[in-house]
Specification:
The protein is an all-alpha fold. It has eight helices and no strands. It has one domain.
Length: about 200
């Protein structure tokens, strides 16, 4: 066997080893990304079900931020209600920011994003008034994610579930519901009727 053949075989084996190492590195990166996505998902879910966030949700549901007097008092004061509104908005803003930049997996985080889109309807009066007063786009990523839902630029899928299973448990229309919630959240609020003093 000549040195040329030995050298060629050596080069071929080195190429195979390099190819195997490259494939192993890609698989490791995919595994690392999945691990990071799962860690982020569980962290967000832990926050969503924390007593502080549940209390903030209940507080938000009890407020009518479309009422100018309520809105003004909550924005102007460093109140507990202001704190609750910010807890909710800031969490969904963080998730929306990472989703809008493609950092978080769309399929994994879409249920949370759908909740953010439906919550935007309640938070919108606060955000718009805050923007007007302070000139900064408070929770802009949350609003943009809602816009993506409403215009079909963000996918919402129950792909892991078979169609007959979705029908069986009654969620076959859920993706459309998420899009319609987002669409409703972007519609301008009708001004509140002022009671006439008769």
């Amino acid at each position: 066997m000549t040195w040329e053949i030995v050298s060629a075989i050596g080069s071929l084996l080195a190429g195979v080893v390099l190819l195997v190492a490259s494939i192993a590195a890609v698989l490791q990166l995919r595994h690392l990304r999945l691990s990071n996505q799962m860690t982020a998902y569980f962290h967000v879910m832990e926050r969503l079900y924390s007593p502080e966030f549940v209390e903030a949700r209940q507080s938000l549901e009890s407020l009518d931020l479309r009422d100018p007097a309520t809105l003004d008092s909550i924005i102007a004061e460093n109140s507990l209600e202001n704190h609750h509104v910010r807890i909710i908005g800031n969490l969904f803003q963080s998730v929306a920011r990472l989703m809008n930049f493609g950092v978080l997996d769309e399929d994994l985080f879409n249920p949370i994003a759908a909740l953010a889109a439906s919550t935007w309807k309640s938070l919108r009066p606060f955000a718009y008034e805050y923007r007007k007063r302070h000139g900064m786009p408070l929770w802009g990523d949350m609003e943009y994610l809602t816009f993506r839902y409403a215009t079909g630029r963000s996918k919402f899928t129950l792909r892991p579930w078979a169609a007959d299973f979705c029908e069986r448990i009654g969620v076959e229309g859920y993706p459309q519901t998420a899009a319609s919630l987002a669409s409703d959240a972007l519609m301008p609020e009708q001004p509140k009727a002022v009671a006439s003093g008769a």
